[in-house]
Amino acid sequence: MRRLIITGIVVAAFGAFIVVFPGLTIQPQGTVSFGPIHNTVHGQHTVPALIGWVAIVGGVLLVVAGSRRKRYCIGPRNGEGARAHAA
84 in the Ramachandran plot: left (φ > 0), alpha (ψ -120 to 50) or beta? Predict the structure, then answer.
């Protein structure tokens, strides 16, 4: 339950970071080799702001789900097991 809330906060913070800094780019680099042929790959990808908004909404939903799950716990209380209900 607590992990769900913490995960939601981290995801929402990541989304807020993307929304606040809209020019975030990812530059993957690598080398492609096929036999004697070698080529270096360079690329540049911009992360859309929509991904940030989706992460914010998803993080908020995780926090809400984590808090509701804690509140509406169904099961035996005070160490009562299945034998206490069978009698």
Answer: alpha
Going from N- to C-terminal start, the domains of the chain cover 1-26+41-74
Q: Quickly tell me which residue has 């993307």 as its tokens.
A: 18
Q: What is the pLDDT of residues 1-22, one digit of tens each?
A: 688 999 999 999 999 999 998 8
Q: How far apart are CA 1 and CA 68, in angstroms?
A: 9
Tens digit of pLDDT for each residue in 51-72? 999 999 999 999 998 887 555 5
From CA 43, how far away is CA 75, in angstroms rounded?
A: 53
Only one residue has tokens 């908020």, namely 60
CB atoms within 10 A of CB 9: 15
If 0-12 CB within 10 Å is exposed, 13-18 middle and 19+ buried, where does residue 24 land?
middle
Is the pTM of the predicted complex or chain greater than 0.90? Answer: no
